[in-house]
Automatic annotation (TrEMBL), chain A:
Ranges of residues in domain ABC transporter: 7-246
Protein name: ABC transporter domain-containing protein
Membrane topology: Peripheral membrane protein
Top-level taxon of origin: Bacteria
Subcellular location(s) per record: Cell membrane
Keyword Membrane: yes
A GO term, aspect molecular function: ABC-type amino acid transporter activity
Family statement: Belongs to the ABC transporter superfamily.
Annotated keywords: Amino-acid transport, ATP-binding, Cell membrane, Membrane, Nucleotide-binding, Transport
Organism: Alicyclobacillus ferrooxydans
InterPro entries, alphabetized: AAA+_ATPase, ABC_ATPase_HisP-typ, ABC_transporter-like_ATP-bd, ABC_transporter-like_CS, MetN_ABC_transporter-like, P-loop_NTPase
Pfam families: ABC_tran
From TrEMBL, chain C:
This protein's record includes keyword Transmembrane helix: yes
Keywords on record: Amino-acid transport, Cell membrane, Membrane, Transmembrane, Transmembrane helix, Transport
Membrane-spanning intervals of the chain: 20-39, 51-75, 81-100, 132-151, 184-204
Compartments, record wording: Cell membrane
Principal subcellular localisation of the protein: membrane
Native species: Alicyclobacillus ferrooxydans
Keyword Protease: no
Highest rank taxon of the organism: Bacteria
Ranges where the ABC transmembrane type-1 domain occurs: 15-203
Biological process (GO), any one: amino acid transport
Name listed for the protein in its UniProt record: ABC transmembrane type-1 domain-containing protein
Entry membrane topology: Multi-pass membrane protein
Gene3D superfamilies from the UniProt entry: MetI-like (1.10.3720.10)
Length: 270, 215, 214
């Protein structure tokens, strides 16, 4: 992690119509820093990272991404700025969003060829290297729908990396996957972190956040309720709200026991 | 000009009455026959299935006007059908294919788990259809069924070709009296359009209600 | 059988005419339909409104009424069109009204996630449209487009009512001359049936190919 701030979020507020998604959120992300964002559903985590690559506009505050200062309000930045941000900030979605009508390879080379005007040959070569990195070079000619969720998500990572981004955004990349497929995707992300990529990652994988992230941010009740070095935040949260949230996600035992009781009770009744 | 619109308005209304009578009768035939077609196509009997499929494929591929002519000039001659009956038979026969496919799609669209759950509870298949499948399929049926009804109303205009004095016929004969075809056709057009608007407004409201009740 | 032999070639010629009209009007309707759909989705509010009403009127009025307005109605204001011209104008006007909605909903039905993924990769609007949305929308639309062509073919029947010499016209001539309307209208029905089935078959093939990725 260097001292250079690549994403600077200052007092950011975002609303959809009248509903406030989050309010007065501030966060600095440094080059090569790995920031994990955790928190209950509906806290606004996805919306926050979608503001960073300007999939959503924001209402109040200021947001600097790389060398661009973004204005509040729904007016889009200039085409060049938007383009520059979109090419230098990659994103991986919860639902993969691969282009189903294109093969794996075509998914990966589309943006480099169309946006960066990379020659096709070179784009293919680079794509194959990336697919190799995520362990999928043999599947280059398959269509996405023929692959497992874990494989699709790794293709999505390769597709984003093909633009050679400086920052990668991940929105719950593993939450749609079967448990046995989560590991392969997390491995690919961990590799990126080791290689010095700047990452902003929304996740529910607390163990992974603790091991891989430098910083953990907890969002709840429309704001950031806690942020700091990952171990500190996850092991000794200061606020009561954060403690409650972490207790629930880290110790699901209580919930499981309850379920078991209900199941047994039901079974006994029959 | 306006005076001509007013003068022929009563005739047009007589035509509307016939158009509506024709629509209603054809709709009943189409719904009943369509439901039978859907059941045939869903049945496990290969023969019934094939007959249903062929009927739908063939009848859908032929223009309504041709069906009307066939019914009136050939079948009608043999069985001495009145123009009105021939029209009801042909519109009913054609729209049965549309409703048949709507019913079939909606019934298939209800999750298979529903049938399984109901059978597991010991319900006979007739009860499952009536109490479990159809109520759920109803809301899927409503929008396309309304749409077809609006198509049916428009297609009734074709029967003026076999001399039934519906709205279209009235407009046409008014035009040949006063030599103002544009005015008379537009007057009929406004009336047809009102029916169309009413149906599509109803449809929009239903869809909104369904969405609300499901969210 | 004698009658069939006598009238098979006029009906076949009528069928050919109908087929040509169908293809021509379909192509023109698709071009206009795509333009109108783009206008309805992305145009100025006034354009959206005008196209919206156009679509409503085309969908709201009986086909035969529309055709009669163009052929008979316009004579009242001094515009005299030949049956062929009036017929073609109507087929295109009518087809466009339906094609707009097919293209519009096809474009809208491509999932929002696809747009976002394309945006996140920095793909511009035009490239997103060309490389991501349209290919998928096309696959989604194919069944509707196939029915559209069949609908246009069936619509050509109505041109007989304004005196254009198509299948129905020939069948009518034959029916009056031979007093065997059953045979002749069945021949007409068969001609439409064959053409519709062929169109349906082609559409099905295309659809299979376009959706191979699923
Ligand atoms: N396009 C939208 N229009 C209106 N409201 C929205 C929109 N997107 C999100 N919201 C609302 O914003 C709030 C935050 O949503 P967001 O998806 O950012 O939450 P999240 O923290 O990512 O939750 P999850 O863990 O469920 O993904 C939610 O209440 C949601 O209903
Ligand atoms: Mg989310």
């Amino acid at each position: 992690m260097s001292n250079e701030v690549v994403v600077s979020i200052r007092n950011l507020t975002k609303r959809f119509g009248k509903t406030v998604v989050f309010e007065d959120v501030s966060l600095d992300v440094h080059r090569s820093e790995v920031v994990a964002i955790v928190g209950p559903s509906g806290a606004g985590k996805s919306t926050l990272i979608r503001c960073v690559n300007r999939l959503h506009p924001f209402d109040e505050g200021s947001l600097q991404v790389l060398n661009h200062q973004l204005n509040k309000g729904s007016q889009f930045p200039s085409k060049q700025v938007l383009n520059d941000i979109r090419t230098r900030v990659g994103m991986v979605f919860q639902t993969f969003n691969l282009f189903p009508h294109l093969s794996v390879l075509e998914n990966v080379i589309l943006a480099p060829i169309e946006v960066k005007k990379v020659p096709r040959k070179q784009a293919i070569q680079q794509a194959m290297e990336l697919l190799d990195m995520v362990g999928l070079s043999e599947h280059a000619n398959k269509y996405p729908k023929r692959m497992s969720g874990g494989q699709q998500q790794r293709v999505a990572i390769a597709r984003a990396l093909a633009m050679e981004p400086e920052i990668m955004l991940f929105d719950e990349p593993t939450s749609m996957l079967d448990p046995e497929l989560v590991g392969e995707v997390l491995d690919a992300i961990q590799r990126l972190a080791k290689d010095g990529m700047t990452l902003m990652l929304v996740t529910h994988e607390m163990q992974f956040a603790k091991e891989v992230a430098d910083t953990v941010v907890i969002m709840a009740d429309h704001r950031i309720i806690e942020k700091g070095p990952s171990r500190e935040v996850l092991e000794n949260p200061r606020t009561g709200r954060a403690q409650a949230f972490l207790k629930r996600v880290l110790n699901p035992v209580h919930a499981t026991e309850l379920e078991r009781e209900v199941a047994v009770g039901h079974g006994g009744g029959r | 000009m306006l005076q001509q619109w007013v003068q022929y308005f009563p005739d047009m209304m007589k035509g509307v009455l016939i158009t509506l009578k024709l629509t209603g009768s054809s709709l009943v035939v189409a719904l009943v026959f369509g439901f039978i077609l859907a059941l045939m196509r869903l049945s496990t009997s290969k023969t019934l299935n094939l007959i249903g499929t062929w009927y739908i494929e063939i009848v859908r591929a032929v223009p309504v006007l041709v069906i009307i002519f066939l019914a009136y000039y050939s079948l009608g001659n043999i069985l001495t059908l009145s123009g009105f009956t021939a029209a009801v038979v042909s519109l009913g026969a054609f729209y049965a294919t549309q409703y048949g496919e709507i019913f079939r799609g909606a019934i298939l669209g209800v999750d298979k788990g529903q049938t399984e759950a109901a059978s597991a509870l010991g319900m006979p298949s007739r009860t499952i259809m009536r109490k479990v499948i159809l109520p759920q399929a109803f809301f899927t049926i409503l929008p396309p069924a309304t749409n077809q009804l609006s198509n049916l109303i428009k297609d009734t205009s074709l029967v003026f070709t076999i001399g039934i004095s519906d709205l279209m016929f009235q407009a046409y004969s008014a035009a040949s009296n006063n030599f103002l075809p544009l005015d008379m056709l537009l007057e009929a057009g406004v009336i047809y359009f009102v029916f169309y608007l009413v149906l599509s407004k109803l449809l929009a409201r239903w869809e909104l209600n369904v969405q609300r009740s499901r969210s | 059988m004698h009658i069939v032999g006598l009238y098979i070639s006029p009906i076949a010629i009528g069928a050919l005419k109908d087929l040509i009209l169908t293809i021509l009007s379909t192509l023109l309707s698709f071009v206009l339909g795509i333009l109108f759909a783009a206008g309805r989705l992305y145009g100025h509010p006034v354009i959206k409104l005008v196209i919206g009403w156009y679509v409503e009127i085309i969908r709201g009025l009986p086909a035969i009424l529309q055709l009669f307005i163009i052929f008979f109605g316009l004579t009242q204001i001094g515009i005299n069109l030949s049956p062929l011209t009036a017929g073609l104008i109507w087929l295109v006007a009518y087809g466009t009204g339906y094609a707009v909605e097919i293209f519009r909903s096809g474009i809208m039905d491509v999932a929002q996630g696809q747009r976002e993924a394309a945006s996140a990769l920095g793909l511009g609007r035009w490239i997103t449209m060309r490389k991501v949305i349209v290919p998928q929308a096309f696959a989604l639309m194919l069944p509707a487009l196939t029915s559209f062509v069949v609908l246009q073919l069936k619509n050509t029947t109505l041109l007989y009512l304004i005196g254009y010499a198509d299948i129905m016209y020939q069948a009518r001539l034959g029916a009056d001359a031979t007093e065997a309307p059953g045979t002749l209208y069945l021949m007409a029905a068969a001609a439409y049936l064959i053409m519709s089935l062929v169109i349906g078959r082609i559409g099905y093939r295309l659809e299979k190919r376009a959706t191979a990725y699923r």
